[in-house]
Amino acid sequence: EAGVTQSPTHLIKTRGQQATLRCSPISGHTSVYWYQQALGLGLQFLLWYDEGEERNRGNFPPRFSGRQFPNYSSELNVNALELEDSALYLCASSYWGSPLPYNSPLHFGNGTRLTVT
Amino acid sequence: KQEVTQIPAALSVPEGENLVLNCSFTDSAIYNLQWFRQDPGKGLTSLLLIQSSQREQTSGRLNASLDKSSGRSTLYIAASQPGDSATYLCAVGWETSGSRLTFGEGTQLTVNP
Lengths: 117, 113
Fold this sequence. Notes:
By secondary structure, chain A is mainly beta.
């Protein structure tokens, strides 16, 4: 079974530019989650998509946005990049369905390392 | 505020030792708790998931316990090996947060040969 795949593995941008990060979930998983792991700040929840809809959003500004496609893959877009956006961005997937939607473990990809200079 | 705390932040042990990692959380209204492992520069690997109705889960040398009433979970690693060296993260899913998880800061474990 192929795991969660993220691309690119590394991304270097300058302040003010836009970054697009991509994620393909495990086959059969309908939910995709995005987390930011900045140095010294731990894992912070960004966004949760399920069946193409945004279900929940973390405490991040609107310049962080995303979408989920019909094949359940997802994009995270970060506009007007700032230096503090430099971080490892992790995508995870799970199955959010009956009978136990709350008990499918999250499976993470290896992340995209975004560096803003 | 819903928070997750992990103690200690770092732990160094000799190979073969049994060890316990601690996780505490505010608000006992959880639906599950998960333990993850993260190797440097990598993503997270799911180790164990404990549902709110369960008291413990076991996988190989790993055993995780859950005490909702006291807001605590422990991850027990038996007969530690150098390959167990990694950061271990505890994550809680609260009933009010849907599928969103809140992570602790992690415990960085080093097992010395």
